[in-house]
Amino acid sequence: MSIEFKAGSISDFFSSAKETAKEIDQGKKVTKKNIIWVEPAELMAILKPERVKIVQYLRSKRKVFFSELASDMQRSPVSLNNDLKILSKYQLIHVFKESNPGHGVHRIIEPAFGEGKIEFKAEL
Hints:
By secondary structure, the protein is α/β, with parallel strands linked by helices. It has one domain: Arc Repressor Mutant, subunit A. It is built from five helices and six strands; from the N terminus they run βαβααβααβββ. The strands form two sheets. The protein has a three-stranded parallel beta sheet. A three-stranded antiparallel beta sheet has the order 3-5-4. Strand 1, helix 1 and strand 2 (about 35-40) form a beta-alpha-beta unit. The model has no long low-confidence stretch (mean pLDDT about 80). This is Putative transcriptional regulator.
């Protein structure tokens, strides 16, 4: 699966949706697109070095415990939580809780992109 991030406004999103609708009306086969539209400032927030390191780290993992990720990234829980919240908002990762019998719950982080590429595009 490939995820494409495009920097743009809501009008850019609707223009893209119109083009896809026209292709459908013309009977063209439309392939599934995983495009996430974000404002340019938000795109820059996603591309902060710490968040990029998390994404690169998760490329080699199927799932990882929050504590393991914090330890391996040498990050505080608070800063890691902030980064995970943003990455989750843009569907780059999934964060969920899993029962750990006798010890409460573990927070699990897994990549949403699998082995696919993540492409960032920006037009200013």
